[in-house]
Amino acid sequence: MLLNCGALVFxxxxxxxxxxxxxxxxxYQEKKYSSRYAGIxxxxxxxxxxxxxxxxxxxxxxxxxxxxxxxxxxxxxxGTGGYNPDPDFSSHNFNALFRKxxxxxxxxxxxxxxxxxxxxxxxxxxxxxxxxxxxxPVNLTKDIFISSYFGTRDDPxxxxxxxxxxxxxxxxxxxxxxxxxxxxxTLAKLSRKGYGNEVVVDHGFGHCTRYAHLNEIxxxxxQMVERGQVIGKMGSTGRSTGTxxxxxxxxxxxxxxxxxxxxxxxxxxxxxxxxxxx
Amino acid sequence: xxxxxxKFNPESLSYSRVVRxxxxxxxxxxxxxxxxxxxxxxxxxxxSIFFDSPxxxxxxxxxxxxxxxxxxxxxxxDKIEKVLVDLQDxxxxxxxxxxxxxxxxxxxxxxxxxxxxxxxxxxxxxxxELVIDVKSRLDKIMKKIYVQSVxxxxxxELARNKEDMLASIPAxxxxxNKDLKxxxxxxxxxxxxxxKIRKFHYGMDFTAPTRTEVYSTGNGVIEIMESSKRxxxxxxxxxHGYGYKTLYAHLDDFNVRKGQTVKxxxxxxxxxxxGLSTAPxxxxxxxxxxxxVNPVNYYFNDLTPSEYERMIELSIKSGQTFD
Lengths: 278, 323
Known about the structure:
By secondary structure, chain A is α+β, with helices and mostly antiparallel strands. Helices cover 39% and strands 23% of the residues of chain A. Chain A folds into two domains: 2-130, no CATH class; 145-274, Glucose Permease (Domain IIA). Chain A has helices at 2-17, 21-65, 73-76, 94-130, 268-274; strands spanning 145-148, 151-154, 161-164, 167-170, 176-178, 183-190, 197-204, 207-217, 224-225, 230-234, 244-251, 254-256. In chain A, strands 1, 4, 5, 6, 7, 8, 9, 10, 11 and 12 form a ten-stranded antiparallel β-sheet that branches. Chain A has a two-stranded antiparallel ribbon with strand order 2-3. In chain A, α2 (21-65) packs parallel to α4. The longest helix of chain A is centred in the first third of the chain and has 45 residues, at 21-65. The radius of gyration of chain A is 38 Å and the shape is rod-shaped. Chain B folds into two domains: 6-50; 119-317, Glucose Permease (Domain IIA) (Distorted Sandwich), CATH 2.70.70. In chain B, a hairpin with a 4-residue loop joins β1 and β2. Chain B is rod-shaped, with a radius of gyration of 42 Å. Classes of the chains: A alpha+beta, B alpha+beta. Chains A and B meet through α1, α2, α4 and α5 of A and α1 and α2 of B.
């Protein structure tokens, strides 16, 4: 009886002042979690840093090359209005942490969309370059020379000043003529306007090219052609004073000087590489 | 108080009072004391297993909350990390599409920090021997450049005009290129963007938005200033003397006149996309005695040795030029 009384007294004392063993264990667990909390904050910051580093290549390089606008800053910060710049991360403040993670997720998703845009634009640009009339229509060996340039000149037949819409390449009879970009042949027949045997190729993106006074046409209307493919042979058909290729480039219904589209720096050997043989 | 205890004394056949000494009493007291303690502890342990103290209840709740929150946070971060890795993959793909070359080493990409710049870093990339060879040759060139650049007849002139020469020969980058982010394509065999064949690229391309300022890289005179839609497009050639000339091509606009004298750092024009160019960029060439030379050797006033290493790595890497 006395024993139990004493036990009760001590029991109450223990209850009030001493923690049960389980509590000690749980307090240890709690401490473990709080150090992990700091680890998580660090991880979030490092992910944010990684994300921000992708902005640099995005805006400065890719968007610059593709001539796209940069994404404005207010869109990048992804709608974090009312954002407390210095939230309390000191204790287990999960509200602040969740907000930070949500904001990170939004920024990541904006960057994803940005990459979608850029990839589409990059592929499109590559496609556009394939359709750009960027090579000479004939291999510029020493047998070839330009006899007549773009612009006003004395017409060889009437001796009046006339606008010459293209460039004349003189060369040996039956020299191979290559199309200067990927495209579709829209015309391949004998012309009634003095162009003789002519081929017109539509490259899309506003560009068309014409190849006139051919001796032989080697393509058909509707045919898809690739840059460098042979489409005809040089001749003197139509209103022509000698064997030559009359080459025109049109951009949106207006003739443009074809010499703007390729440089002089392609050697005959290099031309052989890109010319496609049938 | 405790009851009086009587003990039967077999010898006297009577009950005699039990007298306890102080010590004995004390002993009994201690026994009771410790007995209670032990019992209390036992009771407490049993109690605590079955019942939770309020403190314990609170802690248990907190811990389960923490557990849940951490699980959520961890899985969210894992998702985000996966997406970021995917983004970096996409970046690499876009790089390959535009530049037709493998993207630059990812250690350079990481968060734009300085990074170590040593031969060890170079050894990780392809053609490392080539790069290291170039780098060591470059180191030698940097020391010998003033002497190598002139012929015997001009050595005496050189000695007399050394200060002028140091100010005149190309020595900085023609556009502002912090972190070398704008270095696009350098000297050497590259893929032409339109012909798609390997051609030697005799200069250095810098990507930059249209209307970025272009600087003269040394004192000199504007020798050629041409507006054109062909080839180099709008371009400027500056004669620095001492056999050096520099070319700046595909400009959008000019800021100087032909014949004008300029100093290193003067704005001479603006980056554009004129002539045969597939993106806004500056094509920069250095010519010595009429021959084109690698411009990477002529940025010594602008770059630290560690930046130089990176510049070389970047300019060798790129596969496709913009002109």
